[in-house]
Amino acid sequence: MADILHQIGIQSSSDKVYQALTTREGLAAWWTHDTQGNSDIGETIRFRFHRPDGSEIGGFDMRVRELDPARLVRWQVVDGPEEWIGTTIRWELRQAGDYTNVLFKHQDWREPVEFMHHCSTKWAIFLMSLKSFVETGKGAPSPDDVKIDEWN
């Protein structure tokens, strides 16, 4: 198994970061505008990504597995690219003074295929969008995110 791991500090309370990770409005403001569903435990959140011309690139469905307010969010991928299905996305939040340290893990990839390299870079870009959204109120969600290759 292989994992994508990132860490970022966000100058904000862990409560505010948690809200950005657990509300449809928050998720749509930093990851993708096309966010639908309910973020309660056991529910599914649907994320779709688009090119600037509006055409759909693809998407993911995440089942919410664990929520610990201001501390933890955990999703399991239940639909999307084959490489993602069955993987887990985990956000650990730790308050450190004026900052919230976010430990991000996209866990349980079966193998480190080329697409995983792409996804690692895109996660880093979206984590910077999360930081910007929480700190300034303006993120760069899809389709306004940084494009890095033919996948997007």
CATH class: Alpha Beta
Task: Evaluate the radius of gyration.
Answer: 14 Å
Overall geometry comes to globular
Tell me, rounded to a whole number, the average pLDDT. 96
Spatial order of the strands in the main sheet? 1-7-6-5-4-3-2
Strand runs, count: 7
Considering DSSP H and I runs of 4 or more, what fraction of the residues is helical? 25-40%
| Termini gap | 25 Å
Task: Describe, in plain words, how this protein is organized in 3D.
This protein has a single domain, classed as Alpha-D-Glucose-1,6-Bisphosphate, Chain A, domain 4, CATH 3.30.530. The chain has 3 helices and 7 strands, in the order E-H-H-E-E-E-E-E-E-H. The protein has helices at residues 14-22, 24-30, 114-136; strands at residues 2-11, 34-37, 44-50, 56-68, 72-79, 88-96, 99-109. It has a 7-stranded antiparallel sheet, with helices on one face. Strand 6 (88-96) and strand 7 (99-109) form a beta hairpin. Helix 1 (14-22) crosses helix 2. It is globular. The two termini are 25 Å apart.
What is this entry, summarized?
This protein has helices at 14-22, 24-30, 114-136, and strands at 2-11, 34-37, 44-50, 56-68, 72-79, 88-96, 99-109. By secondary structure, it is an alpha+beta fold. A hairpin with an 8-residue loop joins strand 5 and strand 6 (88-96).
